[in-house]
Amino acid sequence: KDSSQPSEEKVGAFTRIIEAMGFTGPLKYSRWKIKVAALRMYTCCVEKTDYEEFF
């Protein structure tokens, strides 16, 4: 009863998005800064807020 299936690493949604965009090496900014920027961009799009006025 030896299963020869390769164990898959669980990756987060952020990692999948970065890989889907084609980035494979180290990023210029930390993950935290990218997540904060993404949240700001999302908030501005949803609330129709001018990004410059938002910050």
Question: Helices and strands in order, then pairings?
Answer:
Elements: H1 13-20, H2 31-47, H3 51-54
Key attributes of the depicted protein:
mainly alpha; 3 helices; elongated; disordered N terminus; 55 residues
Explain what the structure shows:
This protein has 55 residues and is mainly alpha-helical. It has a domain of 28 residues. 53% of the residues lie in helices and 0% in strands. The chain contains three helices and no strands. The longest helix has 17 residues. The radius of gyration is 17 Å and the shape is elongated. It starts with 12 loop residues before the first helix and ends with a helix. The N terminus is likely disordered. One of its GO terms (cellular component) is mitochondrion. This is UQCC1 factor.
- Radius of gyration from the alpha-carbon trace, in angstroms: 17 Å
If you average the pLDDT, what whole number results? 72
| Annotation, overall tally of beta strands | 0
Tell me the strand percentage band: under 5%
Number of helices: 3
Largest pleated sheet: none
Shape: elongated
User: Which residue ranges are poorly predicted, with pLDDT under 50 across at least 5 consecutive positions?
Assistant: 1-7
Distance between the termini: 59 Å
Structural class: mainly alpha
Topology as a string of helices (H) and strands (E): HHH
Helix content: 40-55%
